[in-house]
Design goal:
Elements lengths: L2 H10 L6 H5 L2 E11 L2 E6 H14 E14 L2 E12 L6 E14 L2 E10 L2
InterPro entries: NTF2-like_dom_sf
Organism: Flavobacterium calami
Protein name: Nuclear transport factor 2 family protein
Length: 120
């Protein structure tokens, strides 16, 4: 599987809201630098897992729609929109935010992430 296919498979899974699935994709030394509406956030393996657990408590389903994905060497750039379904209203899909992420892949795992997000 190419690194581009690996990243596509990651986003098609429920990894963003299921920490057990997420663990299979993360390198033990993973870090993310995330420019969010709250400013720059630095995340490591444990904080990424904690965030997935928080999302799991609030949402019953997560769906990512990728609009652009480009791979070169050990890097994959992906532009996507993240949709969720809430526990209160599981029939309605809600846009969480738009994202642009550059992933460095190491040892067939997500190793370094550089991410920007914007609410719609």
């Amino acid at each position: 599987m190419s690194i581009k296919e690996f990243v596509q498979k990651f986003y098609k899974s429920d990894a963003l809201i299921d920490s057990e699935i997420l663990k299979t994709y993360l390198h033990p030394d993973v870090t993310i630098e995330w420019n969010s509406s709250k400013g720059l956030i630095h995340m490591d393996y444990n904080s990424i897992i904690d965030m997935a657990n928080e999302l799991n408590r609030a949402y019953v389903r997560s769906k990512v729609r990728i609009s652009h994905i480009i791979a070169e060497d050990d890097l994959v750039s992906v532009r996507y929109s993240h949709f969720v379904k809430t526990i209160e209203n599981p029939r309605e899909e809600m846009l969480l935010a738009h994202f642009f992420t550059i992933w460095q892949i190491k040892e067939d795992k997500l190793y370094r992430g550089y991410q920007m997000s914007q609410f719609s």
